[in-house]
Amino acid sequence: MRRMKIIVTKFGGSSVADNIQIDKVKDIITSDKRRKYVVVSAPGKRSENDIKITDTLYTCKRNIEENLPFEQIFQIVVDRFTEIQKKLGTDVDFDKEFSIILENMKKGACQDYVASRGEYLNGKMIARYIGYDFIDAAKVIKFDEKGRFLEEKTDKALKRELSKHEYALIPGFYGSKPDGSIKTFSRGGSDVTGALVARASEASVYENWTDVSGFLMADPRIVKDPKPIESLTFQELRELSYMGASVLHEDAIYPAKIAGIPINIRNTNRPQDKGTIITAEPGKRSKERIITGIAGSKDFTVIAIYKNMLSTERGFIRKLAGIMEDYDIPLEHLPSGIDTVSAVISNKAINDRLGELVDEIKQQLHPDSIDVFDDIALIATVGLGMAARQGVSAKLFGALAGANVNVRMIDQGSSEMNIIVGVNNKDFKTAIRAIYEAFENQ
């Protein structure tokens, strides 16, 4: 008998923010029996001015550490869950759960424990509401005693536990150390949990439900009604995410990628939309598609170094990278010429040390000149189809010239999958609109 395909679904904070959203989640889950395993976040914002449950719990912990009153803040969490449960009509013994959590907080429970309780409580309640078994993530998501994630141990624990349940719900974001203490992933870690469950269950697809219908070709706050991206590869996703197109937690890519499981970004509020499919291989695409998307970020600094005969000087780039390492400043990009090299770094990473950094470069590398530009925005035009098409660069730079945008830096990877340009911060939106319009009807 052929095994039924499994779909793993993960719902973000906005998808489980209140009883109305949780009703939508139930409809989605029960509409397809293949949706066997579910991962949920803590309740997110119900409106723009609302506060996430996790942020409220962080405030509780901070007040405890500073010997400030925290009971009233914790009551906000109690009231939120009590209200949702009452409207859903479930019967989780929250009084007992709240009492245990409060007692542990008074005894000095770690921040990770406190922050994870939003997922834990929401998971228990939603599991009861949809009729799924509840699996505490602390049983199956494993970290070592130093808080480092144990990938293979987690995979084995998940496989063993999931085999006992036909339908189950696992809260995202946290796991446990060998002594049983709670350890969380970084913010957005529920995406990672979902991908791990998908890998362990050998799912046919990992659905990541949020409040957007997948990726768009450009930021809708900059470009009006940008076209949706129906499909993209993990490589393209990595490039776009790095440059600010943040729909999916980057670390969630890896477990699904190594298992060859497609990720489908879906909209809880518009389940009829197909969303974006992310796969290892390009699959069938329109022959006319050249670029996949455009993304960018502002506030970078370019340190342009000129030194005669630089290309023949051994160890120059290594020394430059060493200076950055000593200052704990990541090198974002390193475009170079025969006698020039430019270090592109984030303004946040510099943290008011620019003068000191430039002096160190002068002292160690003895350049003929250094120019510094600290108001640079980077824009990446990404697409696997770019390498096989002539005239892409001409079209891109022609569009920027037509929009009177001065290009301050150009960087293209050896894969020819992206072209990154540096422009002045003030030209950021103009540049993105110009590039989009050039390739909109590709």
The helix/strand order is EHEHHHHEHEEEHEEHHEEEHEHHEHEEH
Measured as a percent range, the helix fraction is 25-40%
Give the terminus-to-terminus CA distance.
46 Å
Average pLDDT reading: 91
Over all CA atoms, what is the radius of gyration?
25 Å
What kind of assembly state do the chains in view correspond to? single chain
- Walk across the major sheet and give the strand order: 3-4-2-1-7-9-10-8
Uncertain spans: none
Quickly give the structural class.
alpha/beta
Helical region count?
14
Per DSSP E runs of 2 or more residues, the count of β-strands stands at 15
SSE layout:
Elements (H helix, E strand, L loop, with lengths): L6 E5 L7 H12 L4 E6 L12 H13 L5 H18 L5 H13 L4 H20 L2 E2 L16 H12 L5 E4 L2 E3 L5 E3 L5 H11 L4 E6 L20 E3 H9 L10 H6 L4 E5 L8 E4 L13 E14 L9 H11 L13 E7 H4 L3 H12 L3 E14 L9 H11 L4 E6 L5 E7 L3 H12 L3
Parallel strand pairs: 1-2, 1-7, 2-4, 3-4, 7-9, 8-10
Antiparallel strand pairs: 5-6, 9-10, 11-12, 11-13, 13-15, 14-15
Helix pairs in contact: 2-3, 2-5, 3-5, 6-7, 10-12, 13-14
How would you characterize the overall build of this protein?
With 442 residues, the chain is α/β, with parallel strands linked by helices. It has 14 helices and 15 strands. The chain has helices spanning 19-30, 53-65, 71-88, 94-106, 111-130, 151-162, 190-200, 234-242, 253-258, 316-326, 347-350, 354-365, 392-402, 428-439, and strands spanning 7-11, 35-40, 133-134, 168-171, 174-176, 182-184, 205-210, 231-233, 263-267, 276-279, 293-306, 340-346, 369-382, 407-412, 418-424. The strands form 3 sheets. An 8-stranded mixed beta sheet has the order 3-4-2-1-7-9-10-8, with helices on both faces. It has a 5-stranded antiparallel beta sheet with strand order 12-11-13-15-14. Strands 5-6 form a two-stranded antiparallel sheet.
